[in-house]
Amino acid sequence: MGKHGKKQKHKHQHQHQHQRRGRASYISEEEQEQEYPVSLPSSLASKLTLSDKENESEDEGEKIEEDDESDKNPLTSDIPSKFLLYQQSVQSPKGDISYLQKFFLMYVGGRVPLHLQEDFCGTALLSAEWLCSDPRRTAVGLDLDIEALDWCIENNVNKIRADGYSRLSLFHGNVLQPLEATLVKFECQDPIPDITPKDNEDGIDALPLDSTLQGSPITFPKVKFMKDYQLPARDIVCAFNYSCCCLHTRQELVLYFKHALNALNRKGGIFVMDLYGGTSSECELRLQRRFPNFTYVWEQAGFDIIQRKTRISLHFNLTKQHKKLRHAFSYSWRLWSLPEVKDCLEDAGFRSVHFWIRRMPDSEEIRSVEGFGDSRDTKYEDVASFQQRDSWNAYIVGVA
Ligand SMILES: C[S@@+](CC[C@H](N)C(=O)[O-])C[C@H]1O[C@@H](n2cnc3c(N)ncnc32)[C@H](O)[C@@H]1O
Questions:
Q1: Distance (Å, rounded) from C-alpha 393 to C-alpha 359?
Q2: pLDDT tens per residue across span 83-127
Q3: What are the CA-CA distances from residue 36 to residues 50, 54, 211, 285 (Å)?
Q4: Are 375 and 365 in contact (CB under 8 A)?
Q5: Are 164 and 175 in contact (CB under 8 A)?
Q6: What segments bear the compositional bias annotation Basic residues (predicted)?
Q7: Ligand 1 contact, 174 CB (< 6 A)
């Protein structure tokens, strides 16, 4: 799942995304990776085992490599989706939701948070989990990547309750122009039931997604934009897995935060994003987490200290299939600092900003951790000051 800037930049990057996804090439594995365990910083994904290695390829396009065993293996065609692999090795939606609820209670309170907007949602796994947690809940997901959104509909939405699709609105578009984002069609046969009426900012019940379509098979005569819908005012807007790093300029970050604030309920709401950092995060690094059927590899290219930019690539090595899904995801990121984010949230109009940080294990310590290791056991703490470390993760909460 990828990223971007504004206008021209977005256009260009979106094209790049499609190029990335477009073609998977099968090449011999003579360039078999050699892994050199080194002391690596552990910041990111809070979820990785470390290893280091030589640069794999100049070509950052998505590709599948196979090894010599692959021809003999009947499972070679059985390659799991990169989205499934990502969800299994990167995301922890239950943990995120429990913190979202805690933050809402602390900084808003007085009601149960029901309406979530997941910006940069990718396959909207968090939204799906949110809907599962309470039948009154609704979710709005927004992302530039139509392939990820389609995959969500095929694979995540149908795992919710039967009414799941009616409580989830997925929009394809840019977080910098959310109202221009277009609704993604659900290819379901049932009529659209009413979404639970919600208080919007004016205290008026929100309309169903499209009341004119109730009782009839879903057919969308034309493209529908987010601005065409009266969505419930959101209690929480979130941007996870460091997605705000996809925005490269201060102007973009402030604009995005203004849109997030605008989506929040005037009776109170929060914006929550995450960020990583630490001394180990500002250099090249390669981290690896091993799961029973595959290995997830996080690769951070060199870190430019002037622009604070880096390129992240995610690779998956499939054990049974003897294949490597290289550059399955690739991002150009600006690694924002905590005070920069705070300033931008305040400039956008948020009333207060809070940092919840957890120390991550030093890279040396997690060199050979399997799976998620024990990084998820460490709790985030509300802090006003935090001494620099090898690696940390943060939730940043903006209170509307
Ligand atoms: C790092 S992934 C995060 C996906 C998901 N939120 C998660 O928690 O794993 C970043 C996502 O942001 C999307 N994205 C990047 N720039 C965007 C933009 N300007 N507007 C909307 N989506 C964007 C990408 O398509 C990608 O799905």
A1: 7
A2: 999 999 999 899 999 999 999 999 999 999 999 999 999 999 999
A3: 9, 8, 59, 12
A4: no
A5: no
A6: 1-23
A7: yes
Q: What is the pLDDT of residues 131-174, one digit of tens each?
A: 999 999 999 999 999 999 999 999 999 888 777 788 999 999 99
Determine the residue of 171, 177, 246 to mutate for testing ligand 1's pocket, defined as the one with the most ligand atoms within 8 A of the Cβ atom. 246
CB contact at 8 A, 180 and 226: yes
Alpha helices in the chain (DSSP H): 7-22, 82-89, 93-107, 125-133, 146-155, 164-167, 250-263, 338-348
Q: How far is the CA of 203 from the centre of ligand 1 (A)?
A: 31
Note whether 258 and 89 are within 8 A (CB). no
Ligand 1 neighbourhood includes 91 CB (under 6 angstroms): yes
Choosing from 92, 243, 299 the residue with most ligand 1 atoms within 8 A of its CB, the one to mutate for a pocket test is: 243
The residues that bridge with 277 in the sheet, in sequence order, are 392
If phi > 0 it is left, if psi is from -120 to 50 it is alpha, else beta; for residue 34 that is beta
**Tokens describing residue 378:** 């460490």
Tokens of 20: 């990335």
Distance 144 CA to ligand 1 centre (A): 7
SS3 289: strand
CB distance 145 to ligand 1 below 6 Å: yes
Q: Please report where in the chains the tokens 């900012």 appear, as a residue.
A: 201
- Phi and psi for 191 in degrees, rounded to 5? -70, 160
